[in-house]
Amino acid sequence: MKVMKIITLFTLFLSIPSVFFAQITTKGVESKSLISESERSMSQGNKNSLTVSLPKTNAKFAEKIWKDFAKQYKGDYKRDKKNDEYFLDNAMIAGIGGGNTVDMYMKFSESNDVTTATLWIDLGGAYVNSKDFADKYSEAEKLMFNYAITVTREQTKEQLDEQQKNLKKLESEQKSLEKKNTNLHSDIEDYKKRILKAEADIQTNLKQQDDNKAKIETQKKLVEEVQKKLSTLN
Question: CB within 10 Å: which end of the chain, N or C, has fewer?
Fold first, then answer.
């Protein structure tokens, strides 16, 4: 049974997305210790549980994913605020209930950017454990693995959405920069035309100044002649 359990765990780990594996290894957690079994305190007392650590995950996000994930098992989903638990009453889980309903309890705790999810499965007086219910426990492990993978998948989707938004923003900025560059080149061409026109206008202006200076000299002579004429009349 232990050999089969190891093979099952290894097979499941091969199916875990590389992002999730990277998150785990960066926290220094070996894959074999991803899911642990222990007795933990909950609303019904100290009961056997399965626990998984979710790196870089906040408890609120983990709970949201669990609520959606648990829908596949039917049952009545409730939140026990007093005990800070999430309860799924009369859940149908293939391979665990054996055609009967079971009760599921889930708790989340968050510390240092890691959320710990702890699951208890009540078979109807007895809780799933590897000693008394090896096959059912193996199925419960798969359930927790699939949940952990789902958390990572949804995190990755959110990261992808965020990065796509950032990409669109950068692409929009790039278009604006390219448009500005085009406008600047257009301005330069406009300035060049204006400079050429101004240079031509300068030459025209210089010629007009020369012509006007000549007219001034002629006009001065006319003024002098009229002044002379006026002086002879006094």
Answer: C
Q: Which residues contact 65 (CB under 8 A, 6 or more apart)?
A: 147, 150, 151, 154
Token digits of residue 132: 């008394």
Helices 134-232 and 59-69 pack at an angle, to 10 degrees, of 120
Cα–Cα distance, 74 to 158 (Å, whole number): 26
CB 73 within 8 A of CB 88: yes
3-state secondary structure 112-180: CCEEEEEEEEECCCCECCCCCCHHHHHHHHHHHHHHHHHHHHHHHHHHHHHHHHHHHHHHHHHHHHHHH
pLDDT digits over 51-106, tens only?
Answer: 999 999 999 999 999 999 999 999 999 999 999 999 999 999 989 988 899 999 99
Token pair 């705790």 is at which residue?
109
Q: Compute the distance between CA of residue 145 and CA of residue 8 in angstroms, rounded to an integer.
A: 11
The encoded tokens of residue 56 equal: 């870089």
